[in-house]
Design a protein that fits this description.
InterPro entries: IS4-like_transpos (IPR047658), RNaseH-like_sf (IPR012337), Transposase_11 (IPR002559). The protein contains twelve helices and 13 strands. It is globular, with a radius of gyration of 22 Å. The protein has two domains: 5-77 and 289-371, no CATH class; 80-273, Transposase Inhibitor Protein From Tn5, Chain A, domain 1. With 373 residues, it is an alpha+beta fold.
């Protein structure tokens, strides 16, 4: 028996029907989109349709495209709400050994058409989407604090029963005393958020320092200040400052960590950039979509997000078992194992190696179990 498309479709559908409240017909279309995106590495429907076998539709390429278009344009489906249902179930499958969890949030764009606010879970050197909200590029208020608050409240509710030690990481576009207070006082989470150099600051015993830019960084070493007063609101927090060798800009990181670990923790923020690359030109080519229809793009992003979760779980599984030697995930360098493919590349390679291969020899896991990496 082989991992043909009909088998993969059936197994994937059985898993997702327990995670997403969709009718059987709509679930068939979702699974078809996920498989098509993974195999074709694009969101262009004509290329996806070419990869879909008779198990999806015995019709022509044109009829397959129209069927997918109707699914993606269906206004009665709320993909962002469906993704919340999915994440509730997905996090039940997360296996953490450290009990520490890092959530990175940032905005990304699809050219100059759409803006996406996304919260992601750091997994190894990648990040997985936990919650997102999409807007038109020039939509009024698309970067308002209320949207950030909405995402954080959802995640706080989802994670409340797990008792994780949560740290939030974000770039300077999210610097806000209102946000710092909300995280610290209401959510009771930790945060490391970069600030712009023009913010006013009061540091005890440093009367010459009026703004963050007045702080001179040490060469290749961080400076740490505790119980500083930030902005005219005199918000009390901690501050870490550093400038990497040959870097143009200095990092000013506001945080509420007890130890001087903010710089190390903040560096983990960059995993979300790798994920965005995987979504776009480095993987699924999201930016190749032609559509200006926001419902269509929301649905497309929903499909890509689930496809990405599936591939990352395969990549992690590959790194943990004997499959890594089959596709060359790791190599021995100076007596230690070093991963040479990202979790995303590993997952893609394993999926394609298994595709239409013997099931017993090349086993695909459809459980969506996520291990801390």
């Amino acid at each position: 028996m082989i991992n043909d498309q009909e088998y993969i479709t059936t197994k994937l559908k059985k898993t997702l029907e327990k995670m997403i409240p969709l009718s059987s017909k709509r679930l068939n279309n979702l699974v078809a989109m996920i498989i098509g995106i993974i195999i074709s590495k694009t969101v262009v429907l004509s290329e996806i349709a070419q990869e879909l076998k008779d198990s999806y539709s015995s019709g022509t390429e044109e009829s397959k495209i129209k069927r997918l278009q109707r699914f993606l344009s269906n206004k009665s489906i709320n993909p962002e709400k469906l993704y919340e249902f999915y994440i509730y179930k997905f996090l039940n499958k997360y296996k953490s050994t450290s009990n520490s969890l890092y959530i990175i949030f940032d905005h990304t764009t699809i050219e100059d058409k759409f803006v996406i606010l996304q919260f992601s879970l750091k997994v190894g050197k990648r990040a997985l989407p936990l919650w997102y909200k999409m807007f038109r590029y020039k939509e009024n208020g698309n970067k308002d604090f209320k949207h950030i608050k909405e995402g954080l409240k959802f995640l706080h509710k989802v994670l409340a029963s797990y008792n994780y030690n949560v740290t939030l990481l974000a770039d300077r576009g999210f610097k806000s005393v209102a946000l710092f207070k909300f995280i610290d006082e209401e959510l009771k989470w930790k945060y490391c958020i970069r600030c712009t150099k023009d913010l006013s600051v009061t540091i005890k015993g440093k009367s010459k320092i009026k703004k963050l830019e007045d702080i001179k960084p040490l060469s290749n070493k961080g400076k740490n200040f505790y119980n500083i007063k930030l902005t005219a609101q005199n918000y009390n927090c901690n501050l870490s400052v550093c400038k990497a060798k040959d870097a143009e800009e200095t990092w000013f990181i506001a945080h509420n960590l007890e130890k001087s670990l903010a710089i190390r923790e903040y560096k983990k923020r960059f995993q979300i950039e790798e994920m965005f690359k995987d979504f776009k030109s480095g993987g699924f080519n999201l930016e190749s979509t032609w559509s200006m229809n926001i419902q269509y793009i929301k649905m497309l992003y929903f499909c890509i997000s689930i496809a990405y979760c599936f591939i990352i779980t395969l990549g992690i599984s590959c790194s943990k078992d004997k499959n890594n030697t089959i596709i060359g995930v790791v190599k021995n360098l100076n007596g230690r194992k070093v991963r040479i493919y990202s979790l995303f590349r590993s997952g893609l390679k394993w999926f394609k190696r298994c595709y239409y291969s013997n099931r017993n020899e090349y086993y695909l896991k459809f459980c969506f179990t996520l291990y801390e990496s």
